[in-house]
Amino acid sequence: QLVESGGGSVQAGGSLNVSCVASGVTRNAYCIGWFRQAPGSEREGVAVTYTRGGDTSVVGDVKGRFTISRDDGKSTIYLQMDNLKPEDTAIYYCAAGARARMYTENNYRGFDAWGQGTQVTVS
To answer: Quick one: which of 61, 34, 28 has its CA closest to 46?
Structure first.
């Protein structure tokens, strides 16, 4: 089960930290990713973390502004978003999959469990 929280409204240039509690996932070898979907747009990948090995990756034009991290003790994955822009406005989702991979923002596979999403609005 994946439950996101921490979304909200912020002015351009501001920061938000969204969280994803991944119950029963982080103890196994899983890939957990953050995605977003803006109105009228396709869903795109944002960042990913692999519980085995601890590798992380941020993809797309949010590189340098977004950071993914996790706290295994709390089964929680975080997405720190800095220097937010209006084009970052979207619903942000976390997703997991045992064999999932995220190569680019538009090239990902294997994410078969999804949270309900949290709205981020930048004005």
So the answer is: 34
Helix (H) or strand (E) holding 67: strand 66-71
Residue 93 confidence (pLDDT) above 70:
yes
Computed on alpha carbons and rounded to an integer, the radius of gyration of the chain in Å comes to: 13
pLDDT tens for 21-42 read: 988 765 566 899 999 999 999 9
Residue 25, sorted as left (phi over 0), alpha (psi -120 to 50) or beta, turns out to be alpha
pLDDT digits (tens, 9 = 90+) for 52-79: 777 899 999 999 999 999 888 888 999 9
**Which tokens sit at 11?**
């002015």
Name the residue with tokens 């240039």: 13
Residue 82: which residues within 8 A CB-CB, separation 6 or more? 15, 65, 66, 67
Nearest to 34 by CA among 13, 54, 17, 52: 17
- Grouping H, G, I as helix, E, B as strand and the rest as coil, residue 56 is strand
Angle formed at CA 64 by CA 123 and CA 17, multiple of 5 degrees:
55
Give the whole-angstrom CA distance, residue 104 versus residue 26: 22
